[in-house]
Amino acid sequence: MSREVILAKVNEIFWDVFDDESLEITEATNADDIEDWDSLTHISLIEAVESEFDFKFAMKDVVGMKNVGEMIDIIEREMA
């Protein structure tokens, strides 16, 4: 699966979790970029990504992620 396809799927997850299809997610997007992105929403995002891509994030990955690009790096690694 290409990085672009993963980003598109992640973008759809963001639309669903934040209930906002106007969001434009990039690899640089982080919690500071989305007003409603708090710790509870972060958990919902993690769970939705895990469900979509059928794997579980390691706790060190969850706390270390700084942006969507790093999330995609982890997804790619897990799918390899």
Short characterization:
With 80 residues, the protein is an all-alpha fold.
Structural commentary:
With 80 residues, the protein is mostly helical. It has one domain: Orthogonal Bundle (Non-ribosomal Peptide Synthetase Peptidyl Carrier Protein, Chain A), CATH 1.10.1200. It contains four helices and no strands. Helix 1 packs across helix 2 and helix 1 (3-18) packs across helix 4 (68-79). The longest helix has 16 residues, at 3-18. The mean pLDDT is 95.
Keywords for this entry:
80 residues; mainly alpha; 4 helices; 61% helix; Non-ribosomal Peptide Synthetase Peptidyl Carrier Protein, Chain A
What's the number of structural domains? 1
Helix content: 55-70%
Q: What oligomerization state is this entry in?
A: single chain
Would you identify the CATH H-level superfamily?
Answer: ACP-like
Low-confidence stretches: none
- Largest sheet composition: none
What gross morphology would you assign? Answer: globular
Order of helices and strands: HHHH
Count of alpha and pi helical runs? 4
Give the CATH topology: Non-ribosomal Peptide Synthetase Peptidyl Carrier Protein, Chain A
Q: What is the number of strand segments? A: 0
> Do you know the CATH architecture?
Orthogonal Bundle
- Approximately how much beta-strand content do the residues carry? under 5%
Q: Tell me the distance between the termini.
A: 9 Å
- Based on helices, strands and strand pairing, what is the structural class? mainly alpha
CATH class: Mainly Alpha
Overall mean pLDDT stands at 95
